[in-house]
Amino acid sequence: MIILAVETSCDETSVAILKDGKEVLSNVVLSQIDIHKVFGGVVPEIASRNHIKYLTTVFDEALEKAKVTPNEIDLVAVTEGPGLIGALLIGINAASAFAYANSIPLIGINHLHGHIYAASIDNEIKFPAIILLVSGGHTELIYAKDHFDFEIIGQTYDDAVGEAYDKVARVLGLSYPGGPIIDKLAQEGKAIYNFPRPVMDSGDLNFSFSGLKSSVINFVHNNRQKNIELDVKDVSASFQEAVIDVLINKTKAAIEKHPVKQLIIGGGVAANKGLRRRVFEEIPNVEIIIPKMQYCTDNAAMIAAAAYYKYKKDGPLPNYLLGGYST
Fold it and tell me: How far apart (Å, rounded) are the C-alpha atoms in residues 179 and 160?
């Protein structure tokens, strides 16, 4: 089964073609990071305009790299949300037009499901499973009984973990996106500052990163007012240690409450080297799968992988077909 997928939920313009949900024939990702870096974050209108500008080129490149013609494609998939409304609409319209012009069934995929199934490209997902989903917009613990049988058992009360990374990076004078930069600096620094671990021992599985973020920002501002010079590497290491302590603590508690065969970690923050290392060191007795680095951040390959399992489970039902048509 050959699936073409489109992902435009934020600032990556991506088209991928997968065979049988695993064989990546092409996965073209055009990043806008350099465009948005000057603003310190993604500007939705600019992201939308660049999707319009480059999406046709990305389509062509994906088809060329995969050596596939439209009449060989069995299914078109597209991210239908969550994400930036304007950016999503551009991808949806492009995928709908391509599917309609070539008489191919069209399926909408939840962006977060894409992050989950990114792990399935190079691994076999086993159920039941706990999923730790960590990204710039989401932080969730999910109990998965089967394909697309998901129950959210923990989520953030306020900031997502990736958002906290970006805000802390900004106050430290680091570039955007802040997560990879802080992760790199943390490997070179020492966690000598004791920042709070919010909701650490409350007994529930929810997260809160707003207090931690504010604590770091206030700490930096207070020291600057006193003309005390801080080592950015040590602040980064201390902040990251606090974040990972919370993520691991909650994940362990979820596994104790819901015995599972597998732990799946997905989302952009799953690329964090500190998190990857400590998860394997500190969470024993469960198989852990994490997508390869190139499938952690937004990309269309993960959308195609999710579409493969969604289509196998439900078939081309009108209730999730965009545009309400099928062939």
Answer: 12
pLDDT digits (tens, 9 = 90+) for 206-252: 999 999 999 999 999 999 999 999 999 999 999 999 999 999 999 99
Report the interhelical angle of 178-188 vs 161-171 (nearest 10°). 70
Question: Is there a single domain that holds both residue 238 and residue 275?
Answer: yes
| Same-domain pairing of 41 and 17 | yes
Write the CATH number for 251: 3.30.420.40
58 and 151 share one domain: no
Mean pLDDT by 10 residues, the chain (327 residues): 97 97 97 85 91 96 98 96 95 96 95 97 97 94 97 96 95 93 97 93 88 96 96 98 97 94 97 97 96 96 97 68 41
**Which domain covers residue 209, as residue numbers?**
124-290
How far apart (Å, rounded) are the C-alpha atoms in residues 185 and 255? 30
Q: Between helices 273-282 and 178-188, what is the axis angle to 10°? A: 60
Over residues 297-327, the pLDDT tens digits come to 999 999 999 999 999 988 765 444 444 433 3
Q: Same domain for 268 and 319?
A: no
The total of other beta-carbon atoms located within 10 Å of residue 57's CB is 13
DSSP-assigned letter for residue 207: B
Are the CB atoms for 134 and 291 separated by under 8 Å? no
**How would you classify the pairing of strands 106-110 and 12-19?**
unpaired
User: Hey, what amino acid is at 324?
Assistant: G
Tell me, yes or no, whether 143 and 91 share the same domain: no
User: pTM for this structure?
Assistant: 0.93
Residues 108 and 173 in one domain: no
Are 179 and 238 in a shared domain?
Answer: yes
Burial zone of 132 (CB within 10 Å; 0-12 exposed, 13-18 middle, 19+ buried): buried
Number of domains in the chain: 2
- Predicted local distance difference test score (pLDDT) of residue 205: 95
Verify that 138 and 248 share a domain, yes or no. yes
Range list of H helices, the chain: 33-36, 44-66, 85-101, 111-117, 161-171, 178-188, 210-225, 232-257, 273-282, 293-296, 300-314
